[in-house]
Automatic annotation (TrEMBL):
Removes 5-oxoproline from various penultimate amino acid residues except L-proline. Transmembrane segments: none annotated. Monomer. It comes from the Eukaryota. Gene3D superfamilies: Peptidase C15, pyroglutamyl peptidase I-like. The active site is at residue 85. It comes from Albula goreensis. InterPro entries: Peptidase_C15, Peptidase_C15-like, Peptidase_C15-like_sf, PGPEP1_Glu_AS. Belongs to the peptidase C15 family. One of its GO terms (cellular component) is cytosol. This is Pyroglutamyl-peptidase I. GO terms for molecular function: pyroglutamyl-peptidase activity.
């Protein structure tokens, strides 16, 4: 199928614990309203906070859409900035999900590497978006928390050879509104797509300018 449009899939999580309204899914729905421009097909999905659902849903999203980029968004009660996660981790999943389930192995992919990094340079994205004056504070992290966020990220990175990203957002109103988070996600994703297109353009070029 020849399609000139870029395909992007963005997920947010459903309710869990004290997060009866999950800021990540609200922010993703705001992003959907804004869109990523005429050249990008954007698909969004809500992900239940369940290990076994992630095991089936994330591979099916990659298979169904074959996106150039998949971005997962999660909420962190500790976050006060929009946080770009550099990598996903394979081990240490001890917390029960919303179905009171936890993997027996406490790992994501048995025999997989301990850590998989995104091909996207999150430090660069952070600097570029901050410089663009999006009005939201950004930071970069190497620890997505060893819960469903980290688990989903690792699963996606493993399936896509690193062509995935994870963004943590703070709870709504602490300090940002849904609209501000949606605008921030849009700015971040557009920079990620720009960086990916440049890296693909440089594939056949030995000289880095």
């Amino acid at each position: 199928m020849d399609n000139d449009k870029i395909t992007v899939v963005v997920t947010g999580f459903g309710p869990f614990g004290g997060h009866t309204v999950n800021a990540s899914w609200v922010a993703v729905q705001e992003l959907q309203k804004l869109g990523l421009g005429p050249d990008v097909e954007l698909y969004v999905h809500e992900v239940p906070v369940e290990y076994q659902t992630v095991n089936s849903l994330v591979p099916s999203l990659w298979e169904q859409y074959r996106p150039q980029l998949m971005v997962h968004v999660g909420v962190s009660g500790l976050a006060t900035t929009v946080t770009l996660e550099k990598c996903g981790h394979n081990y240490g999943y001890e917390r029960l999900d919303t179905s009171s389930f936890c993997p027996d192995s406490q790992c994501c992919v048995e025999g997989g590497p301990e850590c998989i990094h995104s091909v996207i340079d999150m430090d660069s994205i952070c600097k570029r978006v901050t410089a663009s004056g999006v009005g939201v504070s950004l930071s970069v992290s190497k620890d997505a928390g060893r819960y469903l966020c980290d688990y989903t990220y690792y699963t996606s990175l493993n399936l896509s050879r690193g062509h995935a990203a994870f963004i943590h957002v703070p709870p709504l109103g602490k300090p940002y509104s849904a609209e501000e988070l949606g605008r921030a996600l849009r700015a971040i994703l557009l920079e990620m797509l720009e960086v990916l297109s440049q890296s693909q353009g440089n594939k056949h070029c030995d000289h880095r300018h």
